[in-house]
Amino acid sequence: MKNKIVLNCIKRMVLLGIVGFTTQIHAEVLVILPETGPMARAGLSIKQGILSTYQIGNNNIPLKFVNSDQKAIKLILKQDVNKKTQMIIGPLARPDVEALIKLKPKVPVLALNEVDPSYKNVWQYSLSKNDDALALLDYVHRDHVSKLYVVREKGTEAESINFLNALFLNYRGEVDPVDEMPKVRAKNEGVLLLGSNEWLSSLKKLQKKNIYTQAIAVNEKKALPKGMKFCDVPALYIAEWKDVVRAYKDKPTSLPYQRLYAFGGDAWHIAEHFVLQPKVKNLTFNGRTGKIRIDGNRVERIPQCFERSKSNLVAL
Q1: How far apart are the first and last CA of the chain?
Q2: What is the Cα–Cα distance from 130 to 169, expressed in whole angstroms?
Q3: 29: nearest Cα among 74, 59, 70
Q4: N or C: which end of the chain has fewer CB within 10 A?
Q5: How far apart are CA 304 and CA 231, in angstroms?
C-alpha cells in the first residue's frame, strides 16, 4: 500500500513536470518588426539583438517574427496572435504603437516606442533622447552647475531638438543658448555642446570641467575632448554583455545600430521574464541599454554616463 502511494506521488510529479514543460514550450512570443521598407535596417538590427540574447539563454520559448512593413497592426494581430501567444514584442513605429493601443490587446505587449496614449496591457520601452538628457542633467546638477550655455553646430539642429527640449523641461538652472563658446566662465557655469564629433574636435581651448555633449557626438575613430561627459547605452563601452559583442562580430555596424543590438537584447530579457513569471509585474536589472526599472506597466531606463579622461572613458 505504501509503495503504491509513493508510486502515485511520483506519477503526479512527473505529470506536473510534463505539463510545466509543455506550457513553456507552447508559450510563443510574437515579434512585430519592420524587415523591409524605410525602417528595415532598424528593425533587422533589433531582431539581431533579440536573437543573439535568445541564443545564449536556456529557455526554449518559440519566437515568431512578423514583418510589419506595409501591414496594418489590426490585420497582424488577427492573423498571427493565437492561443499559444503569451507575449508580443513590438511594433516599432509610433503610428503602429498608437494603433495597437487603440485595439486594447488582451495579450501583454512590450511596445518598442513611446507614445502619449497608454493601455494597462502595453509596456512602452524605447531609447528615448529624454532618458539620455535626464541622466546627463543629473550629473550637471552634481557638478553644481546653475547656468548652462548651449552651443549647437549649425546645420545639425534637428538631430538634437528632442534632447534640447528635454533639457528645457527638466533643468532647474538657467539655460543660455549662444552662437559661440563663451570665453570665460564662472565655476558654477557649464557648456552643453551639441554637434558632430568633427565639430567638437575643431573647437579650440575647451575647458576640461563642466563640459557636456549628447551621445550622437561619440565616434569610434576619434576620442571626445578631455573632461567631456555624456550618457549612453553602456553595452557600447563595457564588454559585459556577450550577446551584444556576438551580434557585432556577426554583423559589424555603426554605433546607432549597435545601440539597437543592445535594445533588442534588453527587450528579449524583459519579455522572457514576463513569459516565465507572468504574475510578477515589477522588474529591475542592469541592462545593456542602462538600468531598467519596471513598475506596473511603466518602463524606466537610466542610461550610463561617462567622462572622457586623458586616455579612456570612465564610467561615472
Answers
A1: 67
A2: 10
A3: 59
A4: N
A5: 5
C-beta atoms surrounding 294 within 10 Å: 21
DSSP structure class, residue 224? P
Sign of the torsion angle spanned by Cα atoms 4, 6, 12, 17: negative
Separation of alpha carbons 249 and 105, rounded Å: 37
Q: Please, which pLDDT band fits residue 129 given cuts at 50, 70 and 90? A: confident
Cα–Cα distances in Å, from 151 out to 74, 157, 193, 194?
A: 45, 10, 5, 6
10 Å CB burial of residue 156 (0-12, 13-18, 19+) is middle
Angstrom distance (rounded) from CA 200 to CA 204: 9
DSSP state letters, 112-173: SS--S---TTEEE----HHHHHHHHHHHHHHTT--EEEEEE-TT-HHHHHHHHHHHHHH--S
Q: How many helices (H) and strands (E) does the chain have?
A: 9, 15
Task: Tell me which residue of 99, 94, 92, 42 sits closest to 74, measured CA to CA.
Answer: 99
Looking at every residue in the chain, the average pLDDT score rounds to 88
Q: Are 70 and 39 in contact (CB under 8 A)?
A: no
For position 78, what pLDDT does the model report?
95
CA-angle at 312, arms to 307 and 313, nearest 5°: 30
Distance CA 111, CA 88 (A): 8
Return d(Cα 263, Cα 243) in angstroms, integer.
Answer: 11
Instruction: Report pLDDT digits (tens) over 58-117.
Output: 888 999 999 999 999 999 999 999 999 999 999 999 999 999 999 999 999 999 999 999
**3-state SS, residue 74:** helix
Whether the full predicted model's pTM is greater than 0.85, yes or no, is: yes
Residue 235: is it exposed, middle or buried by C-beta count within 10 angstroms (0-12/13-18/19+)?
Answer: buried
